[in-house]
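hey m, so remember when u said the tokens were messed up on ur end? i reran from scratch. heres the input so u can diff it against urs
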Amino acid sequence: MQRRTALTLIEVLVVLAASAALAAALAMSHREAFSNKTRHECASNLRGIGQAQYIYAQDDPQTFTAYGGVRKENDGAMRLFDPKSRKDVPDINGLPSPTVDLWMLIRVNNTTPRQFVCPATKDVEDKVTDATKYWDFGKRENLSYAYLYQHDPDLENVSTSSHPLIPIMADGNPYLRGKIDAKPLDDRNSDARGNSTNHGRNKRPGQNVLYQDSHVNFETSPSVGLSGRFSPELKKSNGRDNIYTMNAAGADALVDPGDASPTPKLCNPASSSDAVLVP
């Protein structure tokens, strides 16, 4: 009997198909492993910043960083990233800046510029050699994270004695940092669920969120603030405040309507339960 030594065309195609499937599975596995790795690194960054806030709050005034404190006469106007004035001492009566608030941790050497860069983004570390010469990050690409707006008269500055589930930082705000143009309500009801763009711009699986007690969770929705009623138009909400939007209708309105996103120059939370993280 003569042995067959050559493969038929069908057998070759089967081998090629199997090889392609294996390669695709390996590629997917690699992407998932990389995604998990960057999420963990990102969470570690935020956790370290949370611990730095506690160290900072050991001194007077015993609150987390908020340069100049609450602006009682402020109408919600704010400043973000002004390289021309980053060497100038900010006016405590001028426009507040959450980015200046965060830089205070670097000025006192509680943390480093590197910790403010999410490894899942294309952002780059601010390469300053002497942080005490500056009062702010140089550009938006030096800061991947959003910080709780601490300057509104309707809010109290977060301190070591505040509620442990107040979200104080998270991956960047999708409407400021991520440049998402969709209306917040539509965005919340989409597959992206109004999440940050740090860990994927298209699918947007979620964001790392740092809470007051320094623990970090990867949340699949921005509805992780204080609890309360929510608008029936929101199909994807667990009844908690959206950390990326403002309740523009006022303190008596629904906690999480998702109907007003902050702008680069305005942040005006409506009540003590309306936490807004920027930029």
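this time it looks ok to me. The mean pLDDT is 87. if urs says something different then somethings off w ur setup not the seq
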